[in-house]
Amino acid sequence: MPDRTSGDLRLAGVTKTYDAFTAVDQLDLVIPRGSFFALLGPSGCGKTTTLRMVAGLDQPTIGQIWIGDRDITETKAYERNVNTVFQSYALFPHLSVIDNVAFGLRRRKVSNYKAKAMEALDLVQLAHIARKKPGQLSGGMQQRVALARAVVNRPDVLLLDEPLGALDLKLRRQMQIELKRIQCEVGLTFVHVTHDQEEAMTMADTIAVMNAGRLEQVGDPATLYEHPRSTFVANFLGQSNLLEATVTSLAGMTADLDVHGVNLRLPLDRLANGASSVWLGVRPEKLRLVLPGSTDVGGGAGNRLSGVVTDASFTGLATNYLVRLPWGQELMVVQQNDGMPRAASGEHVTLDWAPEHGFALDADQDAHAGAQDRADDSGAT
Amino acid sequence: MEVTVVPPPRPARRSYTPYLLLLPGLAWLVVFFVVPTLSLASQSLQTGDVDNGYVQTWHVQTYLDALSRYWPHFLRSIAFAGTATVLTLLLAYPLAYFMTQKAGKWKNFLLVLVIAPFFTSFLIRTLAWQTILTDNGPVAELARSTHVTDALQWMRLTSNDSLMNSRFAVICGLTYNFLPFMILPLYASLDRLDHHLVEASGDLYATPVQTFWKVTWPLSLPGVVGGTLLTFIPAAGDYINSRLLGNTQTVMIGQVIDSEFLRVQDYPTAAALSFVLMFVIVLIVAVYVRRAGTEELI
Predict the structure, then answer these.
(1) DSSP strand pairing (A157-161 vs A303-314)
(2) SS3 state at B198
(3) 3-state SS of chain A?
(4) Hey, is the C-beta of B200 within 8 angstroms of any chain A C-beta?
(5) Which CATH superfamily is domain A9-226 in?
(6) What is the predicted ipTM?
(7) Smallest Cα–Cα separation from A35: which of A149, A183, A181?
(8) Cα separation of B92 and B72, whole Å?
(9) B193 Cβ under 8 Å from any chain A Cβ
(10) Are B170 and B126 in contact (CB under 8 A)?
(11) Does residue B85 or residue A173 have the better pLDDT?
(12) Are the C-beta atoms of A120 and A153 separated by less than 8 Å?
């Protein structure tokens, strides 16, 4: 392959409007070379449009797209060193698998295209079906052929548009691991568009969460999960309990918050400067359910709320509870099946969590943003 | 644990429904294709005349005589039909491509326009070409003033300054009359073209021209083959266009068969010519379909 002077993929102020509708709004994004990057968001959030603009299939209305120090905004799709794995795979039905994989190489007049294509098929473990037509393959195999067809060109950026969307759950899990392995092996920049938060978290080094054409937050999966910066991210990535809170005092390293008359605490660095009313968030699995009469009272430094169990469902791995607080709000609690006694519906319990497991979000946001958009087809969590 | 009771396999009952459904079609084919074909075959090997009746004599010489007399008409028919087929393809492909890929909401309206000529009789539409190409009409005048007539004469498509009664007029008529039969199959196959494949081709470094030849064209081949067959086969046997728009030098084999049957009333020769025509067309089609590599698509 020729030496490439490519680098990071950079989107600068990219906007795409269709008539009155803004699909992508002022997107600024840097995707480091060699990273596995996920664009995550509900359908219609602009992630596929973003991908198509990077591929050159759509033109940004405003803004530039750079690869390294080259502005590729005006470059035609067929002149970009970018390849796409389409959601529908888009394999050429009239060509054999090997000819599909060699398609890009032959257009670029690469000399030993046959050998290179076979190598790519080896990478996805499909060398034995090189002579077959795509129509004779299963969905999972077609998916891997589509991947080989893109990877074989060693593009600067490889785009994956919901590549696992059409596969069943088991195959999807398998392909997630496979994709990650291939990415490590070839070291290409992968940009993966998905609406499945779990898929994004398992595979990507960095996730950009998009909503309504805008970036909500960019970060590694753990940061996004532990420190969401908006209610949308808090609800879209996993589940969150959000409590309406007022800041009452800032003392030392912790802040005191008032939640319906209960005093709860939060490390000071989790709080935005000057915020007075916030959503205090805590993940369901961070809450510990303490049964009445239990001698276990937690560390003592914990935040504590009491309530009544309104629903308990046992999933084997864990028990999911809904606990109603005195002011009527229900919190989700996930208790690992670690041998501790389980609570029953109607029981009075205490919820206990460490202050550092909380996070605070600006109070003027919708507390339910993103909750209904989440992909819940990803099986038991 | 729930016990599932597996019913014992029922004795396979033979279903006659598919055969019953085949029956009307088969009966039609037998009455209107198989029987006439056999009677035509028998007719071609008889001798005699209309007044005194025909006798089955297995006189193969009829075929040889017919061929030696009329081989130029065969060649001419194939040349005219082939030219008309190529012209319809050149006209229909861009049109069908535009209709399916670019026309958007106008798609159905354009489709109606393609089919609209069928609401008028084939004969009337062919006669209309006499008016279009008439010597003192605007088309002929324009052709003369732009020296198109000279070019046509040089290509031996016309023999003088007029457009009518020439090879040119016959080919125009054939092209016009069979154009919808080319457009419709092309339309059907291009309409099925998955736009993602075109995008994928561009994504894989193919220029628009390469994308056309490597993706769009091969995927539209079923339509191309279907359209060329639907155009070439009837055009090769056509006898209306050459009669209404041609001259004595443009007589096609369909016209010969027509006159042998109805005017000369030499039934054996007419039957023999019909068989030869059928054989020639089947041969050409078989070779063509094999070359196009689309056997499985027919």
Answers:
(1) unpaired
(2) helix
(3) CCCCCCCCEEEEEEEEEECCEEEEEEEEEEECCCCEEEEECCCCCCHHHHHHHHHCCCCCCEEEEEECCEECCCCCHHHCCEEEECCCCCCCCCCCHHHHHHHHHHHCCCCCHHHHHHHHHHHCCCHHHCCCCHHHCCHHHHHHHHHHHHHCCCCCEEEEECCCCCCCHHHHHHHHHHHHHHHHHHCCEEEEEECCHHHHHHHCCEEEEEECCEEEEEECHHHHHHCCCCHHHHHHCCCCEEEEEEEEEEECCEEEEEECCEEEEEEHHHCCCCCCEEEEEECHHHCEEECCCCCCCCCCCCEEEEEEEEEEEECCCEEEEEEECCCCCEEEEEEECCCCCCCCCCCEEEEEECHHHEEEEECCCCCCCCCCCCCCCCCCC
(4) yes
(5) P-loop containing nucleotide triphosphate hydrolases (3.40.50.300)
(6) 0.83
(7) A183
(8) 29
(9) no
(10) no
(11) B85
(12) no
**From A79-93, B3-17, B162-176, B234-248, the region with the lowest mean pLDDT:** B3-17
The answer for A 211-270 residues in CB contact with B (under 8 A) is: none
For B194, which DSSP code? -
The residue count of chain B comes to 298
Q: Which of A84, A93, A108 sits opposite B203 (nearest CB)?
A: A84
Instruction: Write down the pLDDT at residue B7.
Output: 65
CA–CA gap between residue B61 and residue A322 (Å, rounded) = 99
Length of chain A: 381
A147 and A182 Cβ atoms separated by less than 8 Å: yes
Residue A62 reports pLDDT greater than 50: yes
Cα of B286 to nearest chain A Cα, Å = 22
The Cα–Cα gap between A279 and A314 comes to 29
Mutation for testing the B interface, residue in A81, A94, A113 having most B CBs under 10 Å: A94
Q: Which helix (H) or strand (E) holds B113?
A: helix B107-115
Strands A318-324 and A288-290: unpaired
Answer whether A239's CB lies under 8 Å from A332's CB. yes
pLDDT confidence band for A5 (50 / 70 / 90): very low
Torsion sign (Cα): A19, A20, A24, A25:
positive
Task: Return the SS3 of B56.
Answer: strand
* pLDDT score at A378: 40
Q: Could you say which of B204, B210, B214 has the minimum Cβ distance to residue A83?
A: B204
Q: Do B200 and A92 touch (CB under 8 A)?
A: yes
Domain boundaries, chain A: 9-226, 241-376
Q: Closest Cα of chain B to A152: distance in Å?
A: 10
Residue B113 CB partners (closer than 8 Å, separation 6+): none
With an 8 Å Cβ cutoff, is B196 touching chain A?
yes
Domains annotated for chain B, with CATH where assigned, are 57-297 (1.10.3720.10)
Question: What kind of fold does domain A241-376 have according to CATH?
Answer: OB fold (Dihydrolipoamide Acetyltransferase, E2P) (2.40.50)
Q: Are A152 and A99 contacting, i.e. CB atoms less than 8 angstroms apart?
A: no
Tokens matching residue A49 = 């449009």
User: How far, in Å, CA of B156 to CA of B166, rounded?
Assistant: 9
Residues A15, A22: contact at Cβ < 8 Å? Answer: yes
SS3 assignment, position B271: helix
Distance of residue A372 Cα from the nearest chain B Cα, in angstroms: 30
Q: Which pTM was predicted?
A: 0.83
Say yes or no for a CB contact (<8 Å) between A92 and B196. no
CB half-sphere exposure, A6, CA atoms < 13 A: 23
Residues of A in contact with B194 (CB under 8 A): 88, 90
